[in-house]
Amino acid sequence: MKVIVKREFMNYIRNPVLWIAFIVILWGVYQEVSPYLQIRYFQSEEEVTEQTSRIKTFEDISDADVMQGYARATEEQTVFYGMKSIQEVLAESFDLTKEEAAQVTADVLDKNLNIEESCDYLEEKFGYSGWDFYFKNYDYCPGTMESVNGFIREKLDEHPFSWYIAMKFADFAGLYMGFAAAVLLAFLFIRDTKKDTYELLHTKPVSACSYILGKAGGGMAVILLILAVLNLVFGVLCVIQGNKAGFPVSFLDFPKATLLYIMPNMLMIVSVYSVMALIFRNPLPAAPFLFLHMIYSNMGTTGPDGSYDYTGRFLAIMVRFPGRLFEITPPPMWMMNQIFLAVASVILLVCSVNIWKRRRYY
User: 203-213: per-residue pLDDT in tens?
Assistant: First the structure.
């Protein structure tokens, strides 16, 4: 088995597709994670104002985070900023003049209504029930130096800075690695499933278990190599930036996140390729299945409040952590799903071994 693992690993090392994929993954993850590495305590009100003034559009506001000088809003602030946005909608889509829309906003603010009461008031007045969307996008608002720094300290009391960055790293590394693995692992069986090679391999004195585990081990070794380099790069960057900002950090948060949120997914992809390559005597039918499965894994769902968001899906082969850095929470039942993927991967590998045995020539 060790010989097969080593052979497959060296075949990948010599394959230029691996290095192209690695560069794309490294660059893609860096583009997504690097903005969060810039978070630090603000030193003056002018610095906060400079950052918040760069946020111009509604879409930017809904994505603004602490590095842009935004912090968790009070309910009064959420109502204020939400109503300012709703005021524009009323003028544009409900045939109100700007003065009439401004009067609606003034009425809500003068009555000191909370979010739920504001939604009820607007629904009763205009017959539309989707107003909570606008308030939800203002759960963060422009802060002061004191409020933003206080919010950062509060969140760092719950988890070290590296924990949050590791979650974002697992989010985007898992995304890029999933699609990269769906391409790279197609090479794992593609030579061996050619007709002459496939029949010849079944005449060799190598056991089915050694062959299947060797092939899967070779594929996982390459995945581990890429993930090890990614962990090293982003773990070191996080420790350097965290120490510079005076934040608590631990390099071990990165391998922990990788082990929990990425490795079961990679093992599942390897196992799917193994069993489908032997069923069809060609690994390529697994590729469209895996791509569709990853699209399914990234789809959002409509929650009880009618909002559309990512919540995690049963049998998903990706674990995502969308949203603002300090609001990260693992999706529901993620641990059960990851355990299921690991168990299912073992079952698929056992099935692969049995398929190989049934087609052996003596």
Answer: 555 677 888 88
pLDDT level of residue 303 (50, 70, 90 thresholds): very low
3-class SS of residue 8:
helix
User: Can you list the alpha helix ranges (DSSP code H) found in the chain?
Assistant: 2-13, 16-37, 45-52, 58-63, 75-93, 98-110, 115-126, 132-136, 145-158, 161-184, 187-190, 195-201, 208-245, 253-261, 263-280, 286-298, 334-358
Structure tokens at 263: 């490795």
Question: How do 301-302 and 70-72 pair as beta strands?
Answer: unpaired
Residue 123, helix vs strand vs coil: helix
What is the share, in percent, of the chain residues with pLDDT greater than 90? 35
Cα–Cα distance for residue pair 208/205, rounded to 1 Å = 9
169 Cβ neighbours under 8 A, 6+ residues apart: 29, 33, 230, 234, 254, 257
Residue 231 and residue 29: Cα distance in Å, rounded? 11
- In this predicted structure, what is the pLDDT of residue 159? 94
Give the global pTM. 0.84
Q: How far is CA 43 from CA 154, 245, 318, in A?
A: 17, 11, 38
Residue 72, helix vs strand vs coil: strand
Give pLDDT, residue 253.
96
Matching residue, tokens 């109503």: 83
Most confident of 24-28, 101-105, 120-124: 24-28
Residue 281 pLDDT greater than 80, yes or no: no
Question: What pLDDT is attached to residue 138?
Answer: 79
Place of tokens 């109502």: 79
Strands 70-72 and 308-309: unpaired
CA–CA dist 362, 355 (Å, integer): 15
Residues 250 and 326: beta-carbon distance below 8 Å: no
User: Where does the pLDDT of residue 194 fall: very low under 50, low under 70, confident under 90, or very high at 90 and above?
Assistant: low
Contact predicate 67/165, CB 8 Å: no
Phi, psi of 315 (to 5 degrees): 70, 10
Residues in Cβ contact with 344 at an 8 Å cutoff, skipping those fewer than 6 apart:
268, 271
